From TrEMBL:
PANTHER family: HHE DOMAIN PROTEIN (AFU_ORTHOLOGUE AFUA_4G00730). InterPro entries: Hemerythrin-like. Residues 6-127 form the Hemerythrin-like domain. It holds the Pfam family Hemerythrin. This is Hemerythrin-like domain-containing protein.
């Protein structure tokens, strides 16, 4: 039986995030609790995914990539940083029962969709050339193990705390 590729897993996680963003986009301002729950699910899915990419997959990709691949790596890393340091805290700073939250969540979803599409079309194509099927399957197994580890739980907790602090700073400092 063929082993699963990390690219298949990452694509499935992208699709799950797209579904969560579609659900949050369908909510009304009265769905305060639903919005909060969906945002929490988005974070729980996004943070481990992003942290593993940043610490394992992206560096391995960059190490083997040519100039175009290294440019793709740089784009992906900056998109991750923009979401982590600016977009997610801005969404969390908005009251979930507000139009502001709806607008910010929509932009958040659009950025994630853009990033995922670029990753799936450009980076994944390059990765299929840079890594063997066995290496891509090894990445998948390592990722599955990492997601169950205390390190993943700690990454989620730390990023949640950091984005929460940035959200508080955004509330205090204004939009």
């Amino acid at each position: 039986m063929a082993r699963r590729s990390i690219l298949t897993t990452l694509k499935a996680e992208h699709d799950a995030l797209r579904e969560l963003f579609a659900r949050i986009d369908e909510t009304t301002d009265r769905a305060e609790k639903t919005r909060a729950e969906l945002l929490m699910k988005i974070e729980q899915n996004l943070i481990p995914h992003a942290k593993w990419e940043e610490s394992v997959f992206y560096p391995a990709f960059r190490e083997r990539a040519d100039r175009d691949g290294r440019k793709t790596y740089a784009e992906a890393m900056l998109e991750h940083a923009a979401v982590e340091k600016t977009v997610l805290p801005a969404v969390k700073a908005a009251a979930t029962a507000s139009e502001e939250f709806a607008g910010r969540a929509k932009v958040f979803g659009e950025l994630i969709d853009h990033h995922a599409r670029e990753e799936e079309t450009t980076m994944f194509r390059m990765a299929r050339e840079l890594f063997s099927a066995e290496e891509l399957a090894d990445f998948d197994e390592a990722y599955a193990a990492w997601k169950e580890s205390p390190a993943a739980a700690m990454a989620l907790g730390m990023e949640g705390a950091k984005s929460g602090l940035r959200a508080v700073a955004a509330k205090v400092g204004g939009p």
